[in-house]
């Protein structure tokens, strides 16, 4: 509450006070807040990039190694760690009935 | 995978049918659950009909568009019922890309006594058949089946946010971020584009379509709202492509009040015609506004949903809550409007008495048949005993979707993965 009162001395409305707070945290925040960048991000929702070349190369490499069974390999974030079918989260449809259906 | 199961249960849409007999919910897992109101029995005249599960089915599956590297969620964005024309019920359900028409029908008889099949369905050897009989229909336990009758696909490049059935009952519209298409229920391989706001150069994009709805009585009229807080009313008789609006609703803004957040919080998340067709209601982040179709320069009523959030906009921007899309609904007589908020709170505004109330949908606070207690959020320093301070609001408990029975005081409130149905007390 004390912090809010301090801000009120400097700016006129709570909204402007919040804006000042945001600009203080992110000085490079874009000039057009509701403009193209923000809208284009909204339009691109769901975009997931999958490179079949990388995937097949990794699959070929994997054949010569043992398939990772435990967690240790997952902490590795290098160019070698291309997602394999085992790593990808399952995009299965919901086979379980909705809990609302009792 | 326990986390995924919970997320799939999040309710993403709630809608009563035109009589209020049925209530449909759609969820993030692509499933639809339909509830039916119990018939009031003669023995228990005072016991109001309760809603029980009637049917449930998987409407949409997750998909991957390999050509565009786009993951298509199975989440049901909207459900809209068609008016009932025969014994079966029809509804439209949509995810981001595909609209489907579902038929829900009852079966309470089945044929028995086939000649070529036995009772288990196995084929009989024709050589063993010595007599001929006529199959008869015998009663069976009620079975409710849902079948997909039409699939309206491949018409939207962007994500569908709204569908609306036209009053002609022959057509409906589907709206995505930049375009609106008109469909005929019978034709799935063609649709007419009626609004296209995509700029030639995407760098020039300044606004997107956020919601759209047909007028309840005039089949040539519809409205769509934008991320800039404006509403356009279009008349399909004027031209085939309704890029030029017939009416443009916008409230003038005081330039001295403008901040980084102004445009974001003015983005309209829902637009609904009143049942009378004379008004439209819009919901933006902090308010609900009622507009008279005959007055474009400002709303006739503005209601503050949770103005205390104005001093929290910075953190609400950081945690993305500022982009939450709340819906709003009218009651049957257009006298009361309702919308959701955070902390499982929802608000109702009586347009005539100008009184408003905040209620909470939560297990701890509602026992069956208990009366809901009004809640209050306190903003100042001194918090009274029953009040909740702004800082202790739970922003993960958001009520985005609510529905109001078409003629009675029965409301459905979706609180994350729970559905609450509240009714007026019978005296």
TrEMBL record, chain A:
The keyword Glycoprotein does not apply. InterPro entries: Endosulphine. GO terms for biological process: cell division. It comes from the Eukaryota. It is found in: Cytoplasm. Its main location: cytoplasm. The keyword Cell membrane does not apply. One of its GO terms (cellular component) is cytoplasm. Keywords: Cell cycle, Cell division, Cytoplasm, Mitosis, Phosphoprotein, Protein phosphatase inhibitor. GO terms for molecular function: protein phosphatase inhibitor activity. Residues 63-102 are annotated as: Disordered. Belongs to the endosulfine family. Protein phosphatase inhibitor that specifically inhibits protein phosphatase 2A (PP2A) during mitosis. Interacts with SNCA. Interacts with PPP2R2A; the interaction is direct and this interaction inhibits PP2A activity. This is cAMP-regulated phosphoprotein 19. It comes from Panthera pardus (Leopard). The gene is ARPP19.
UniProtKB/TrEMBL annotation, chain B:
Keywords: Repeat, WD repeat. GO terms for molecular function: protein phosphatase regulator activity. It comes from the Eukaryota. Transmembrane segments: none annotated. The keyword Repeat applies. PROSITE patterns: PR55_1 (PS01024), PR55_2 (PS01025). GO terms for cellular component: protein phosphatase type 2A complex. Belongs to the phosphatase 2A regulatory subunit B family. This is Serine/threonine-protein phosphatase 2A 55 kDa regulatory subunit B. It comes from Panthera pardus. The gene is PPP2R2B.
């Amino acid at each position: 509450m004390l912090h809010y009162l301090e801000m009120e001395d400097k700016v006129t409305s709570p909204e402007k006070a919040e804006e000042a707070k945001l600009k203080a945290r992110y000085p490079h925040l874009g000039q057009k807040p509701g403009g193209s960048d923000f809208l284009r991000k909204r339009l691109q929702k769901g975009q997931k990039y999958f490179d079949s070349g990388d995937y097949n190369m990794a699959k070929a490499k994997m054949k010569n190694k043992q398939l990772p069974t435990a967690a240790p390999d997952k902490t590795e974030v290098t160019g070698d760690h291309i997602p394999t079918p085992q790593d990808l989260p399952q995009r299965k449809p919901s086979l379980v009935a909705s809990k609302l259906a009792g | 995978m326990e986390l995924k199961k919970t997320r799939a249960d999040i309710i993403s849409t709630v809608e009563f049918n035109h009589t209020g007999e049925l209530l449909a919910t759609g969820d993030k897992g692509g499933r639809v659950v339909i509830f039916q109101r119990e018939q009031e029995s003669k023995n228990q005249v005072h016991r109001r009909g309760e809603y029980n599960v009637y049917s449930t089915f998987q409407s949409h599956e997750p998909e991957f568009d390999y050509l565009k590297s786009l993951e298509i969620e199975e989440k049901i964005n909207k459900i809209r019922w068609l008016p009932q024309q025969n014994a079966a019920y029809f509804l439209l359900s949509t995810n981001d890309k595909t609209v489907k028409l579902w038929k829900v029908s009852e079966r309470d008889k089945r044929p028995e006594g086939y000649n070529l099949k036995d009772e288990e369905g196995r084929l009989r050897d024709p050589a063993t058949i010595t007599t001929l009989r006529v199959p008869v229909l015998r009663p069976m336990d009620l079975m409710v089946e849902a079948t997909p009758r039409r699939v309206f696909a491949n018409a939207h490049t962007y994500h569908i946010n709204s569908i609306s059935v036209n009053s002609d009952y022959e057509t409906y519209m589907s709206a995505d971020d930049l375009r609106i298409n008109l469909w005929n229920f019978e034709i799935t391989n063609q649709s007419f584009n009626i609004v296209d706001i995509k700029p030639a150069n995407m760098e020039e994009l300044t606004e997107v379509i956020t919601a759209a709805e047909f007028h309840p009585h005039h089949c040539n009229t519809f409205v769509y709202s934008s991320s800039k807080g404006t509403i356009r009313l279009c008349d399909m008789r004027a031209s085939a492509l309704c890029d030029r609006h017939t009416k443009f609703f916008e409230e003038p803004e005081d330039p001295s009040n403008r901040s980084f957040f102004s445009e974001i919080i003015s983005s309209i998340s829902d637009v609904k015609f009143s049942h009378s067709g004379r008004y439209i209601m819009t919901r933006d982040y902090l308010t609900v506004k009622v507009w008279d179709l005959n007055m474009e320069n400002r709303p006739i009523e503005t209601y503050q949903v949770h103005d205390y959030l104005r001093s929290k906009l910075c953190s609400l921007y950081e945690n993305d809550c500022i982009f939450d899309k709340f819906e709003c609904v009218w009651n049957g007589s257009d006298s009361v409007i309702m919308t959701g908020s955070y902390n499982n709170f929802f608000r109702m505004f009586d347009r005539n008495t100008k009184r408003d109330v905040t209620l909470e949908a939560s297990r701890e606070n509602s026992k069956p048949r208990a009366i809901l207690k009004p809640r209050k959020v306190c903003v100042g320093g001194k918090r009274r005993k029953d009040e909740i301070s702004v800082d202790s609001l739970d922003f993960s408990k958001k009520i985005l979707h609510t529905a109001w029975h078409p003629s009675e005081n029965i409301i459905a409130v979706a609180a994350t993965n729970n559905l609450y149905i509240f009714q007026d007390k019978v005296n």
